[in-house]
Design brief:
Blueprint lengths: L2 E10 L4 H21 L6 E7 L2 E10 L5 E9 H4 L8 H10 L7 E5 L2 E10 L4 H14 L20 E8 L2 E2 L3 E2 L2 E4 L1 E3 L8 E3 L6 H7 L7 H18 L3 E2 L3 H8 L6 E6 L9 H12 L2 E4 L5 E9 L6 H26 L15 E3 L3 E2 H19 L3 H10 L7 H5 L6 H9 L4 H9 L14 H20 L13 H14 L6 H9 L9 H13 L1 H7 L4 H8 L6 H15 L4 H16 L3 H4 L11 H22 L3 H8 L3 H10 L7 H18 L12
Parallel strand pairs: 7-10
Antiparallel strand pairs: 1-3, 1-7, 2-3, 4-6, 5-6, 7-8, 9-10, 11-12, 13-15, 14-16, 15-16, 17-18
């Protein structure tokens, strides 16, 4: 069968820049799925996306579906014909359902039985016939949260559609998509070449737009072009351009023909904390900022224009005029805030509700301060400094700067704390309280910052659980899952050995207006530990390994983590399969016995079989070696030692009848197996590793 290239382009009003990448990727994936479902093979598929278009190119697309052959099986020959060779009602009925005479039926072997059969073939549909439906279905499945209608049309899409290009080879597929008749023309840049461009065949699409239409249609190509352009502009002033990937994506979604221009602002604005200036440039104006060789902010910015101006100096001057009031506002807010101390804002926190049932932000600050003192005592931090940081931690929420730039909460608290003469430890802790803010973000580097971050997150988590608002399904309005992972990351990555259940119980005592039952504390504890599941999955650690440790519910997250790493290492050993199977077998056996029997003591005089004597001696020897290792938390080394028990364990099960008719022997053998399992349970329940 022959193949042709296929191109579809949806021309629109300006698409939302932050959604452009997702829309384009979804369009490509939906087209691919639709073509595969229709059995239309192709070699490659590639997406294009600009602010005014979504497009997909399919190379060497099959012109027609393959012929579809089907075979129906009827009754066995023994049931299809009588002793005289005449067709039975079963054969006649099968032939009738196939629309043929019995004589036209074939025979086929199935499962060693010869049966009547009937084969048919159906010619496949053409690609031209199928493609309009495939394109429409792909567009219907795009992730559009709020579709629009335009004019008198009942069609809906992310933005009004102005043209649709649909070419199969050199043929335009004549149909209607989203209420618009298809054609063989695209359109150039809105300002640089606002004309139709005729496309004769799909492969010339990209070059035509670039060379004639002043449009770079390939999103990734345009993205890298912008990266190179802004880097070159930075080189002109000897600066390093900070290319934030999310900002780069957004700018790529705003322009079709990028032109980078460098502007400047007054030096005196650098007296303002750089984070405030960066947000003003990045979030408000979509500018890239520049750093000098000492990683300090420079009084420059780079904007990416969508036009090639004959007078770029005028464009630069316009952008400089726009950014100046933004920076002036930041400076004004900063100078205004410095006139009042952080501590002076404490009273204002009494008027800000944290949560109706949990009180005000002031109440939360008091609870966090109390919990911070407890954590400081447990982790070796300065309780006075931690309490001070906690009390001041939310005061910057009522400052003018944070009211304008909400993302600066915590960071502005740091600057204002230093301005007030607070200890650097206190200021740093205030800055680090929200860390990690997102997946992949750093954890606090200071001990006081770790204490405050844990206390703040745990208070919110416990409070929400106490009032019956834990996360449910995919809903997590208070980001408690993220907070839980944050707590675990801080404890593990900073190697802080903390009993988290005791900490939760202590935190519960700090709530004055909410009675927190012990079960709520246990629920929070299990919720926290269960966050390890996704963490380890991302690291490629088996769910079985996680469950083996979770079965014991260690109360110290750092200890939990060390156990998981040890079990993960153990699971890769040759001996792991046999020993996990033995533990599973013993677990099942012990579960059927009463507790009194299961807790019996080994009597060495009742060991009569060589295999049980050998296992007893091996266990006794290993206990002396591994128990001290486990007590020191050296789980990996201990499990490595226990791996050598495999041969003794295997021999025992091969040659010893555990459930002997003689009760004394039976009880003694059960006790021996219980000791074996108890030794492993000092680390984890490795029976979870067993896979039948």
């Amino acid at each position: 069968m022959s193949e042709r290239d296929f191109l579809v382009e949806i021309g629109t009003e300006e698409l939302p820049p932050n959604a452009l990448g997702d829309l384009s990727e979804a369009f490509e994936n939906n087209m691919k799925a639709g073509l595969e479902q229709a059995c239309l093979s192709f070699t490659t598929i590639h997406r294009y996306a600009t602010p005014r278009r979504l497009a997909v190119m399919v190379r060497e697309l099959l012109e027609q579906q393959p012929e579809k052959k089907t075979e129906r099986l009827g009754p066995a020959l023994t049931a299809a014909f009588d002793a005289d060779g005449n067709p039975t009602p079963a054969a006649l009925g099968f032939a009738r359902s196939c629309g043929v005479e019995v004589s036209k039926l074939a025979r086929a072997h199935k499962g060693g039985v010869e049966k009547l059969s009937f084969s048919t073939s159906q010619e496949g549909a053409s690609a031209q016939h199928l493609l309009p439906g495939i394109v429409s279905a792909a567009l219907d499945k795009l992730p559009i949260p709020k579709p629009m209608r335009w004019g008198s049309s009942k069609e809906e899409f992310v933005r009004p559609v102005h043209w649709v290009l649909m070419l199969y080879g050199e043929e335009c597929i004549d149909t209607r998509i989203l209420g618009v008749s298809t054609g063989a023309t695209t359109r150039g840049h809105r300002f640089l070449y606002n004309h139709d461009i005729e496309v004769h065949f799909p492969t010339e699409y990209e070059s035509l737009l670039e060379e004639t239409g002043s449009v770079i249609p390939d999103f990734e190509k345009r993205r890298e072009c912008i990266r190179n352009l802004v880097t070159e502009e930075g080189d002109k002033v000897g600066a390093t351009v900070v290319v934030d990937e999310s900002l780069l994506d957004e700018v790529t979604g705003l322009v079709e023909f990028p032109v980078a221009l460098i502007g400047k602002f007054d030096q005196h604005f650098l007296e303002v904390p750089p984070e405030a200036l960066i947000i003003a440039m990045k979030s408000h104006q979509r500018y890239f900022y520049l750093l000098d060789s000492d990683a300090k902010l420079m009084p420059y910015f780079i904007t990416v224009s969508n036009i090639r101006s004959t007078d770029p100096a005028q464009v630069i001057a316009g952008n400089e005029r726009v950014i100046r009031p933004r920076l002036a506002d930041a400076r004004f807010f900063y100078e205004l805030d410095k006139k009042s101390s952080l501590e002076s804002h404490l009273e204002q926190l009494k008027h800000i509700v944290f949560q109706k049932q949990l009180g005000t932000v002031f109440d939360k600050s008091q609870r966090v301060a109390s919990l911070a003192v407890y954590l400081a005592e447990q982790l070796g931090a300065d309780p006075v400094q931690c309490r001070r940081a906690a009390l001041l931690s939310k005061c910057d929420l009522v400052t003018s700067m944070v009211a304008e730039f909400a993302d600066l909460q915590g960071r502005m608290g740091y600057y204002y704390a230093l301005n007030d003469g607070e200890d650097l430890v206190v200021a740093t802790a205030i800055d680090e309280q929200y860390m990690p803010r997102f997946s992949g973000d750093s954890v606090p580097t200071s001990l006081a910052g770790s204490v405050l971050a844990i206390a703040d997150k745990l208070d919110s988590m416990l409070g929400m659980f106490a009032i019956g608002q834990p996360p449910t399904g995919s809903r997590d309005p208070f980001a408690l899952r993220r907070s839980a992972i944050g707590i675990l990351r801080i404890l593990v990555e900073n190697k802080l050995d903390l009993n988290i259940l005791n900490t939760i119980n202590h935190a519960a005592s700090g709530f004055d207006h909410v009675d927190i039952e012990q079960q709520v504390c246990l629920n929070v504890f299990e919720f926290l530990l269960d966050r390890f599941r996704s963490w380890y999955t991302d690291q490629g650690i088996s769910i079985d390994v996680f469950q083996s440790v979770m079965a014991l519910k260690p109360q110290r997250p750092l200890d939990f983590h060390e156990r998981v790493l040890a079990v993960q290492h153990f699971s890769k050993l040759q001996q792991a399969h046999s020993l996990s199977a033995a533990n599973k077998r013993v677990s099942n056996l012990l579960s059927k016995l009463d507790s009194e029997l299961a807790d019996s003591v080994i009597d060495a005089t009742l060991l009569v079989e060589p295999a049980e004597k050998d296992l007893y001696e091996a266990l006794t020897h290993k206990m002396g070696e591994v128990v001290p290792l486990f007590d020191q938390g050296l789980y990996k080394d201990g499990l490595q030692q226990l791996a050598s028990l495999r041969e003794s364990v295997d021999t025992f099960f091969d040659s010893v009848l555990v459930m002997s008719e003689e009760k004394s022997l039976r009880d003694n053998r059960v006790a021996l197996l219980q000791q074996l399992r108890s030794l492993f349970l000092r680390v984890a329940d490795i029976s979870y590793l067993h896979k039948p």
